[in-house]
Input
Amino acid sequence: MVLFIIFCPIVAAILIMAGAPARKTALVASGLMFATSLFLLASFQRGQRDFQHVTSFTISPEWHLSFTTGLDGLSLAMVLLAAIVTLAAVWFAGRIDKYENAFYACLLFISGGAIGAFASIDLFFFYAFHELALIPTFLLIGIWGRENRVAAAWKITIYLAIGSFILLIGLILLYQSVPLTSRSFDIRALQAAAAGGQISADAQRHIYLLLIIGFGILISLFPFHTWAPEAYASAPAPATMLHAGVLKKFGLYGLLRLAIPLLPEGARQWTGLLVVLLLGNIIYVGLVTIAQKRLDWMLGYSSVMHMGYIFLGIASASILGATGAVVLMFAHGLSIALLFAIAGEVRKRTDTLILDELGGLGKVMPFAGLAFGLGAFAAIGLPGFANFAGEILIFFGAFQNGWEMERFHIFQIATVLGLWGVVISAVYMLRAYRKTFMGTLGNRWKELVDLRPALRVPVTLLVGALLCYGFFPQSFVRIVVPAFRTYLTANKQP
Amino acid sequence: MITAPELEIAVLVLGMVILMLEAFATEIDERFLAFAAITGLAAVLVASFFVVPSGLDQATGFWSFYTADRLSIFFKQFALLTTILVLIMMIDYAPVVRRSFPDSKAQAGLGEFFAVPIFTCAGLMYMASAIDFVFIFVSLELVTISFYVLVSFTRRNPATLEAGVKYLVLSALSTAFFVYGITWLFGATGQTNLQRITVALTNPSTEHGAALFGMALVLVALGFKIAAVPFQIWVPDVYQGAPTPVTAYLSVGSKAAGFVVLLRVLRPFLMLPQMQRLIVLVALLTLIYGNLAALPQGNLKRLLAYSSIAHAGYLLIGVACFDGTAVVFYLVAYLLMTLLSFAVLVIVSQQTGDRISDFDGLGNRSPFLAFAMLISMVSLAGVPFTAGFLGKFFIFYAAIAQRQIALIVVGVITVGCGFYYYLKVVRAMYWQSTAKIDKIPVNGLSRLAISALIVATIWLGIYPQPILDALKR
Output
C-alpha cells in the first residue's frame, strides 16, 4: 500500500511523459493516491509506536542501506496532507498552453518525491526522494512561471541545492557517529543506537547545527528565507500549492524525525540560537509581510512567517509542542494551498495581484471570496480551524518549558512574542482580504466570473479537512502522539 | 582459460587488422571498419569477464611489471567500454571529418580515425595493469602519442591545429617531468617497481627527501593527465578544438587512466603526511578553479572542459582521503554521464553548433535528446537517483570520515556552482524557444547507446552494489 502511494505519481508521471493524456492520467493518479491515503488512515493501528506497513528491499548489505518504507503516526499525517494537496493542485491546474504533459509530469514528480521522503524509513532514501522535486521545481518556475521567473528559479534551485548538500553532510556525519558495528541508514536502528547512548554529545552538537542550517534553508528559516516569497510569487499556482503546502514540510518532518529522538544533547546546546531565529521568522518576517503590496508576495511571506510557530513547537521539546507542530504543519499545508489556489484563480482573471488595483471582487466572485476568507481565518488561527488547534498546543508546550513562578525564561518570552505574531498575521490577512474582495468593485472587474462548479470540489475538500480537524483535533493528535511518547516527556516540571 | 595479457594482445591485433583493411581493401566502406572495430572490442569486453584476477603478490619474475588484480581487470573493462562508446560517436561524427577534407578523395583517412582509438585503448589497458615505472611510462606514451594523432585529426581546421600543437608541446613537457621524476625515484631507492619501492621506503637508510622530490615530479606529469590545477591550462583550448568524440575520449579515458596510475603510485607514499597535505591543496585549487571558471562559459564544449577539471577536483578529494572505492565509483559515474552528454553534443552540434544557445528549444525539437541531456546534466550536478550523486556521496563520505573540513566546505560551495552551470544547459533546452522547429534525426545505433547510458546512469544511482561488489577485494 505504501509502495503504491509512492510510486503511483511517479509511474503516472513517466506515463505522461511517454504520451498518455496528461490531465486525465494525473487526475486518476491523484484520485487513487487520495483514496489510498484514506485507506491507510482507516487501517492505521492507533496508539502504536512502531512503523506499520513496512516493506524492505536490501540495496547494499555492507553499507546497511536498504529501501525501507513504512508509516508511523507522524509520517501518516504528512502522507495524508500530501495526498490531499496533490489532488487539489492537479485539479486546479486545468489546461496548460505549453508542454502540457511536462507540466503534469513535473507536478506528479514533486508529489511522489514528497511522499517518498515522508514514507522512507531509510535515511538515504529519505534524503534522495526529497531531491527528486528539485529539478521539476526548477522547470515549473522556469517554463511556466511569471514576471521574475528567471531569477526566482535560479534562486530557489541554488538555495535548495546548497541547503540539501549541507544537510547531506549532517546526515553522513550522523551515520558515521554510530560505532562501526551498528552503523545503518535505517532510522529505527539509529534510534536504537541513540537510546543506547552511542551518539556522543559532541557529535550531537555538530550534527544538530548542520541539520538546523540544512533543513533551515529548505524550510525558509530566518535568515535563509529569501528564496521562498519570490519563488512562490513566480511559480504557477499548482506548483506553489505543492511546494509551500507539502514539500516545505519535509524539513520540519526531518527535524521531528531525526533531531528530537536522536540528538537531545544537540537540541539543548542550540535551543537559544533556534529560538532567536524563529522569532526572526515570526516578528521580522511578519512585519515584512504587512508591508507587502502584492497578494502573492504577501502569501509567500506569510508562509515563511508561519514556519516560525512550527519551529517553536519543535524547539520546545515537549510532547505538547511537538504534537502541535505536526497539527500546524498539516493545517498550514492545507490553508496555504487553499490561499494560493484562490490567488491563482484571481490572477487568471485579472492578470494582476497588486492589492491597490483589486477590490470588491467578492461581488462578482462570491465563492472565491468565501473560500479565501475561510483560508485567511484558518491562517490567522481562529478557533474552529485546525491551525488553531496546532498553535494553541505549541504555545502551551512552549510556555511550560522551563516555567518558573518567579521569572520568565527564554521560552516564556518567545511564547509572548509569538502570540504577538498572531496579531500581526490578523493584520495582514484581513487587510489583504479587504483590499481584494471587499470595497468598491472597479469597472474593469465587472465582467469577472466566479469559480466553475468543478473547481469548487477541491476547495471544499481543503476547507472540509481544515474544519474537520479543527473541531476534532483529538482524532489527529491520537495518531501522532505515540510517535513522540518515548522521547519527550508530557509535562516538563522545573 | 583466458589470461589478462591476452586481452591486450587481442586488442592490438584487432587494431592491426583494421589498419591493414584500410590500407589494402580500399573499396570497403569505412563504416564497415567502424562496425568491425566495435564488434571486436565488444568481444574482448565479453572475454574480459572470464579472466580470473590474481593478487598483486603473484606478479613475479618477468611479469613483475604487470598485475592482473581486480582493479586492473575492472579498468580494462572500463577502457573497452569507453572506446566502444567513443567509436559509436565517431560514426556519427564521420561526416564532419569527411567535410574537413574537401579536396582529397572520398576516404579522407577515416579508417585511421576508427583504428587509432583501438591502440589508445590498448595503452589504457596496459596502464591499468602497470606496476613498474618503466612500464607505466611506455603505456602512458602509447596513449599520449595516439592522442596526438586524434586531437589534430581534422587538421585543416585552425582551431583543431592549435589544439593539436598545444597538446603536443605541453604533453611532451609533462612526459619530460615524468621521466625526470622516475630517475630521482630510482636514484633514491634503486628500484622502479612499485612494490619494491614500498619496501625500500620503509628502510630508514633511504633518502626520503629525494624520493619525495621524484614523486612530486611524477605528480606534475599525472596532474597534467588528470587536468588538476595548476596543470590544467591546456584543457579548455584542446577540448574545444579537438573533434568532439576525441574530446569525450580525452576527458574520460585519459583522465581515468591518470587516476588509476595515481592510485597505484601513491600507495608507497601513503605513510608520508606531506603527500596528503600536497594532494589536499591540489584538490582545493582544482575544485575552486574548475567550478568558478565554468560559471560564465557559453560554449558547451568549453563548459564540459571546465567541468572535467571540476570533477578532477572531486576525484582528488577521494585520492586525498585514500578511498580507492570512492574514486573508482566516481570514475564510473563520470564515464556514464560525460559520454552521455558528449553523445548528445555530437548529434546536436552537427545540426546547430556547440554553444549552449544552440540547444535552445531542444525539448521541442527532439524530446529524446533533450531528456538524455537532462539526465546527464543533473547527474553531473549531483541530483539523487543518478550515478553522479552516489559518486559525490561516497567522495564526501570519505572526506567526512577523515574530517577534511576545508575540502568539505569548498566541496559544498562548488556543488552549488555546479548546479548553476549545468542547469544553464537545461534552461536552454526547455525554457528558451527557437525559430528552428525541424526534428533532429538520431540513427539506431546512437539511439541504442544513448538509451543504454540513460538507463545505466539511473540504475547505478539507485543500485550501486554491482560496482561495489566488483571492487571488493
